[in-house]
Amino acid sequence: MFVDMPLEQLRNYRPELREPAGFDAFWERTLAETRLHDLAPVFTEVETDLALVRCFDVRYAGFGGHEIRGWLLVPAAAEGPLPCVVQYIGYNGGRGMPHDWLTWPVAGWAVLVMDSRGQGGGWRAGETADPVGGTWGQVHGKLTQGVLDPDDYYYRRLYADGVRAVEAARAHPLVDPSRVVVSGSSQGGALAMAVSALVPDLLFAFIDVPFMSHIRRAAEITDEEPYAEIGRFLKNHRHRLDQVFATLDHFDGMNFAARNTTPALFSVGLRDGVTPASTVFAAYNHHAGPKDIRVWHFNAHEGGESAQVAEHLKAARDLLAGLSPVTGAAPRTETAAEPSGALTP
User: Fold this and answer.
1) Which residue is catalytic, options 172, 250, 287, 301?
2) Can you identify the CATH homologous superfamily of domain 7-320?
3) Per-domain residue ranges for the chain?
4) What is its EC number (predicted)?
5) In the annotation, is 196 catalytic?
6) Whole-prediction pTM value?
């Protein structure tokens, strides 16, 4: 069934921001703390049975100096510098195997896939530990890990790792640092939305069925995982409700979107019970940069799947031709004025 508002209401749904005091300062401090540690990217080429693709195991220092793993794949014949997609992964997933990520190198792009610390026990294996949680390969529980304090919250570390993934990609000689795109679906979409606000000079962002947007509404209208983790936590910690949402407001995609001038292509499934359509449109309608959205009327959290990938590839073709995928025009020659309180790297 359709689980949210009619489309004509969604297109105009722009709820009031729940922006905590000191939001910008919090993220400036977070990135400053992260950058106290040398990025120290290491790219080790690994042998695969992929004759047309070169693959590198990636290691770099994320939040706290913790080692984050990933893959970098490039066309075997590439001499560079190449445009690059930094790919973020959905909840419970990990970096998996190199052959899971062939779309972009087959299209002539590099792709850096960031493993999600502490995750990878649900649907694709991960190998990056979260030293704060003391584990990797966890299946559930990240949404409430450290949720009583923004400084301790899991997603503070993960979003900072996402920013460092862009920096790691730009450090490789086969990557053109001026042509970096971020991409992700669900939790990966949340990362793409946050990182493209925190790193203002990205070329583009693909933000599909994004998680972690309009979080309080999502927790109130859906019982689907992983938002259900918040409900279970508050069912037992009744007196912590205001404290929990005060933390979550520091990570809400709407607050990043309002500061985000990176051109972006969003997608939404109108039958999505995991990231309800109103939560996606809340971020989309607040997004401050050039934007467009693909609406998949009879789809749920899978969104457009391969059809959305085709939209990405069309957009990538436009980007390489010097055109905007959302306006069709040549890119702006001047940077648009940032909204009040815009984040700085």
Assistant:
1) 301
2) Alpha/Beta hydrolase fold, catalytic domain (3.40.50.1820)
3) 7-320
4) 3.1.1.41
5) no
6) 0.92
